[in-house]
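Minutes, project huddle
Topic: does the predicted pose make sense with PXG bound?
PN asked that the exact inputs be recorded in the minutes so nobody has to dig through chat later. Recorded below.
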Amino acid sequence: MKTRTAPDQLNTQDIQALDSAHFIHPFTDHGDLAKRGARVIVRAEGIYVWDSEGEKMLDAMSGLWCVNVGYGRKELADAAWQQMMTLPFYNSFFQTTNLPAVKLAARLAALAPKVDGRSFEHVFYSSSGSESNDSNVRMVRRYWDLLGQPQRKMIISRHNAYHGSTMAGASLGGMSGMHAQGDLPIPNITHIEQPYYFEHGLPGESADEFGLRAAGWLEEKIIDIGADKVAAFIAEPIQGAGGVIIPPASYWPEIQRIVDKYGILLISDEVICAFGRLGHWFAYEKFGYKPDLVTFAKAVTSGYIPLGGVMVGDRVAKVLIEKGGEFNHGYTYSGHPVACAVALANLDIMEAEQLPQRVRGEVGAYFAKRYAELGDHPLVGMTESCGFVAGLVLVKNRQTRERFSADEAVGMVCRGHCFRNGLIMRAVGDRMIIAPPLTMTHADIDELVRLIRQALDLTLHDLHQKGLM
Ligand code: PXG
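Predicted holo structure (tokens), as shared on screen:
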């Protein structure tokens, strides 16, 4: 029987039943969820979230790679409230604009570092990373059309990349499971292999040798397709959803050499990596490359309200603006005043607390050192981190690097132990990954590492019991 009770009077089972009856979740097997019942998250403060049973969990994933300033920031709620009372919404289609959108665009332009005189003076707004990457496809195609090279249509991406879940986003992404369900990729998108040294490095090959070889796959693909047909290369600085795949130092400079050589556009998808996550406002600065377009979302508002967009570099902006006339593309919420006001308040916090500097400095170094200590655990094949993202590989045998098979689902076993013991950590196959809030103190980092080690111990015990080790 359906009852209409105030939500705060519902108990966990009631909420789970309603959830199961009415809410289709993203990336979820609903048959399985119905059996288990969803975990109901009810509140959050700092680096912790609480569920409806009162369990407290350290959120080492910052929500979903986005709550960079941590939870409970009153300044962000105040900014939203004030903007809603002043101008909750107005569109920016018909030669109108609004103050928060203008201020934010100018602020982002000032934060984006110039490389070799190339700068980012323009911003195109959306409400998510997926939409932003759809906009990238539109902008890239328009750019080449306007330059009289409409045959330059092909966008090259990488296997195991994540660029979103819309038709173009999922096509740009390299997730085979997503392609299989939607007749994807859409035409004119192709993929090369990812720069994952642990998986694709050859015996005796150094990480830097591998990085050059992996970048070389781009050049091979360009030659294969014909350089005059290639529009752009898109990549995450570090692959996030793919499992925190950190490319060797030699990779990005070689990619830059290749895109320059063939004149193709470079799109840096920084939905995860921007806004301090790697110790810089934008991640291309960390790796020293020169993108033409930069995708952002998530931490631009620390996830408090949806906002995304594209930083449009001079090369593309000049053509779109000077030659383009009307660009037939945009969203109702492009430049949403409340989202932009929250983003401005979020950037204020990041600047006042010097969060990128913290991550790049002593706190980041402490995080890297403590995280690396997990590498001595009998289940861990290797650890790696960069700024405030980190991953480790669970292996059967540290000496031989023997991996678990996919059906042993070792990551999910470990993730289960994390949840039950007050830690939110993400599993991607046999990789366990984290992206904690940038506000973590030394004590928080100690607690995080203690909880991870505890989950690893419990996983090891579990595997022994099941005879899998
Ligand atoms: N690009 C990148 C690099 C991302 O990480 C998107 C685009 C799409 O953003 P939206 O806002 O449309 O979701 C993302 C999103 C995971 C996970 O399981 C990661 C993302 C989204 C959902 C799950 O790690 N990243």
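Observations noted during the meeting:
- The first strand starts at residue 41 and ends at 45.
- Residues 421 and 454 are 8 Å apart (CA to CA).
No decisions taken; revisit at the next huddle.
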